[in-house]
Amino acid sequence: MARYTGPKHKLCRAEGVALCGSPKCPVIRKNAAPPGQHGAKGRKKLSEYGIQLREKQKVKRMYGILERQFKKYYQLASSKKSATGQTLLEILENRLDNAVYRLNLAKSRPQARQLVSHGHVLVNGKKVTISSYNVKIGDVISLSAKAANLNFIKKLQEETKDAKLPSWLAKKATVGKVVARPKRDEQDLAINESLIVEYYSR
Q1: Among positive and negative, which fits the CA dihedral 141, 112, 74, 25?
Q2: Do residues 122 and 156 both lie within one domain?
Q3: What per-residue confidence (pLDDT) applies to 3?
Q4: pTM attached to this predicted model
Q5: In this structure, is residue 74 part of a structural domain?
Q6: Which of the four, 9, 45, 59, 132, has the lowest number of CB atoms within 10 Å?
């Protein structure tokens, strides 16, 4: 599937969020300016549509999804009886690359996506190379023996051994399990999903 391969920090600065997951991201540094030669200087105040668009772009880039697939996710969420915005976020959280990231088996979603696409992630004992694979309650997610022995994976497991996981996931060593549906209050609270619903409802 197609993916964005341009400058990562440019997107972070545009959205004002450290989408890359790097602790050295320019956004984390004090007074990081938006992209462009003049930064925020001379920029017009965003319209209501502009605010909605920026929120949609932020979430899309946060999960590493292109426009066509993101729109399909929204259409799927809007077809459900539950709240569209929350259902959309639940669909995004249930992506395999995100589950690998939430289980602290990767430092960032892009790294998790790479692990999946390179065949290092197993679901219920079977290799899955599709990052957008939808994990379900009861699914067991693990790393291949080769990946589990990689130095950066070992180091990450040591660094995150006491880290708290979302309640919808359980983990032992490099093996995780989906035990419930993702909860909204355990997701990124900087996301305003209602703006995305308003954007697509125009």
Answers
A1: positive
A2: yes
A3: 61
A4: 0.82
A5: yes
A6: 45
Tell me whether residue 1 is in a domain. no
Give the max Cα distance, the chain: 55
Residue 80 domain flag: yes
SS (H, E, C) 25-64: CCCCCCCCCCCCCCCCCCCCCCCHHHHHHHHHHHHHHHCC
- Boundaries of domain holding 57: 8-92+188-200
Give residue-wise pLDDT tens across range 72-94. 999 999 999 889 999 999 999 99
Neighbour tally for 3: CB within 10 Å: 11
The CATH number of whichever domain residue 130 belongs to comes to: 3.10.290.10
**How many structural domains are present in the chain?**
2
Question: Under DSSP, is residue 15 helix (H, G, I), strand (E, B) or coil?
Answer: helix
Same domain, 116 and 42: no
End-to-end CA distance of the chain: 28
**Domain shared by 40 and 74, yes or no:** yes
Residue 166 is assigned to a structural domain of this protein? yes
Rounded to whole angstroms, the Cα distance separating 136 from 29 reads: 38
Q: pLDDT tens, 176-189? A: 999 999 988 888 77
DSSP conformation letters of 73-122: HHHHHHTSSS-HHHHHHHHHHTBHHHHHHHTTSSSSHHHHHHHHHTT-EE
- The pair of structure tokens assigned to 48 is 């209501």
